[in-house]
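Task card 7
Instruction: Convert sequence to structure tokens.
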Amino acid sequence: MSAIFVWIETADGAARPTSWEALGAANGLATGLSLPVVAVVFGKGAAAVGQQAVARGASKALVSEDASLETYRLEPYAALLTALVKEHAPRAVVAVATSAGRELLAASAADTDSAMLSDAIELGVDGGAVTAVRPVYAGKVLSDAAADGAAFVTVRGRAFQAAAESGGAGEVVTVSPVLAEGDVKVKVESFEAEVGTVNLGDAAIIVSAGRGIANNPKEAPAGTEKADVWKAQDGFETVIKPLADVLGGAVGASRAAVDAGYIGYAHQVGQTGKNVAPDLYIAVAISGAIQHQAGMRNSKVIVAINKDGDAPIFKLARYGIVGDVYKILPALTAELKKRLGK
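Output:
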């Protein structure tokens, strides 16, 4: 059969939310090519996730809950995906550009000698060819790419609308794994849960702060060795986090703030941190170096708050406020609480 495959990534038996964005992208591509969408789900809870995919627009789901696929490992996952691609000859295979999505699709594309279109923010069809728009050069340039034959496509998170439940009905088919557990070289012994981390990739609203957050008017407690670090950490707690909380958003940071020890790496946005595309990105005391812009320039709405009116971030922002963040943010947070009834 010819169809659009979409890999639904799972964790602990549930679909990762961004996988529904991949399904949304696949649905759009399938409409342009007049083809059905087939969801591919491996691991624990695959059958239940396959049913959800069908309810969100897939015409069929190919699932496997074999023990060798319980947790993601490249060997068994790539072997099965490659086998399914060779058997069914889909026109395209789509997945979100997570670390697993990039790795899996690249491996299967190599196994099947197919084209690979990575990190797409737009998909289309031109004369039967699958086309993609991809950010390059730290997002400063958009590149057009196309594949005439079978195409493996990873899409950037939050670049596509997630497929909504439509009450659709379809077939869920169980498929057998290709590799037995004894044939898989990599073994997963255990997982260690991270406590207090933030998932910036899924956040619809992000409030980020840069090195300028250390310009706190408060005096560091007597005996403090690094007053600037204390002031910056205090600033994250007293003005950045309250604003993020009232908006229901996440806290981000520039690399300069992370390198200075103001906040942990899990919050870093930029070329060497997280690549995000929230509906609203508020950049506080961030100058806007190109490395930072590379990680957030695809945000839907960007608001810059900085005392330097010539900061590069203002060229990227839709809205800008020039002034002291320690005066602006408390006032902004208070007004939002009033208007949002919090």
